[in-house]
Records
---
Amino acid sequence: MDEKIKKLQELIDNAKRIVFFGGAGVSTESGIKDFRSKDGLYNLHSKYGHPYEEMLSHHYFFEHTKTFYQFYYEFMISKSAKPNDAHLYLAKLEKAKELTVITQNIDGLHQMAGSKKVLELHGSVHRNTCLKCGKHYSLDELMELGEVPYCSKCGGLVKPDVVLYEEGLDMGVVNEAIYQISKADLMIIAGTSLSVYPASGLVYYFKGKNLVVINKDPLNIQSDDYLEINEPVGKVFSQLHI
Ligand code: ZN
């Protein structure tokens, strides 16, 4: 076993309270299309002609709802995606340790793997709400409502519970994330470049001893004392045991 993986195993074994903070790189091995990748962006531009920040913005949702949903179903939804070794390991670890998963992903794969304590900073594609009467819809139910989904009960527009550009994060979720990070003695950051808010800011609430970064590309963290593993996230977790 690789020395770094061995060290990570040791840190997990000895930890009392763990926070796992994950980004897009946690889901790529599950077949979630990374629309921010070169190919994804190329396809997006040639088809829609707008940057993704525009297509996924609050104003675009209301002004071009039909195109928003075309883009959303094509680039944001992967119905065939299954949890990978990282999701499955964390679900098992939660039964043995005090563990909170904080994710920037909206795909619900941690819950699909069996995790219960999951804080979704950007919401979830699996929750959708009528803006008029508050009726909730699953993803399947949403897709059955048509190209532009109108509520079957009241006719109001249904919107995914996903944080769009120009929208604020749920402060209840953010505060709980800060609380869990500040209490943890081991924090594992995985599959995120840490360059964007809120990931960049949240890491500074960590006061514990052991920080681990798992990311394909090296990161620049303002701390000289952390374990960095530059490998795919699922591959790393496939080598660990509980
Ligand atoms: Zn309604």
---
Amino acid sequence: MPHSLEPVLRRTMLFSNLDDVELAAIANLCRQRSVPKGSILFYEDDPGTSCYILTDGSVKIVVNSQDGREHILGLLRPGDLFGEMSLLDGEPRSAAAVAVEESKVLTIQRDEFMSQLKADPTLTLKLLVVLTRRLRQTDRHVESLAFLSAPGRVARLLLDLGGELGKPSATGLTFETTMTRQEMANLTGTSRETFTRVLMEYQDRGLVDIDRNQFTLRNETKLRELTV
Ligand code: CMP
């Protein structure tokens, strides 16, 4: 198998416990593709012909409203699988996938992916875990939109991103994001103006430090209190 694919396939939750022979079989099905920043891997409503594994960079999963507003459903990181839903149920793509930065993906054709699933019940169970995690995240997001005020939702987003991407630093938990303020605002279901105002307020209160796209959560306890 192409040597460089092995580590990244191992990092993909779906394939993490395959042995070398099984991994080689999967690697043989994969095609590697480089995607420039901003390019669209597929559009919402396209037919699903293959699934994808992100190996480098970042991809956003988005839906667009009729008046052109974009809503991010998910921001994917290396190791994440996407584009599997339309392969499973035969429906068109539920959302579009866009490279947020220069990225690399592996693609697996529909028939080959489905044959692997049919042949390997462990793989199918792992896919269920991936889908279940996503449903949990979506439920959490819906709950946050339904029950939290705008400041609470901003605090929840900061904590979620800190939990996912954050590294401990001298002053707190620091993370960087490729998302614009507008994209972050969309995720919290607020306008960019409200989102920015809440961020400034949190900065003034010493809860968070902001330096362009770098955020440091200085007081996670207090932020968490704002999400209940
Ligand atoms: P598919 O419907 O084929 O194409 C769009 C893909 O986006 C979908 O498969 C999933 O892989 C992915 N996707 C859909 N909803 C979400 C979500 N809420 N979070 C992350 N990824 C998603």
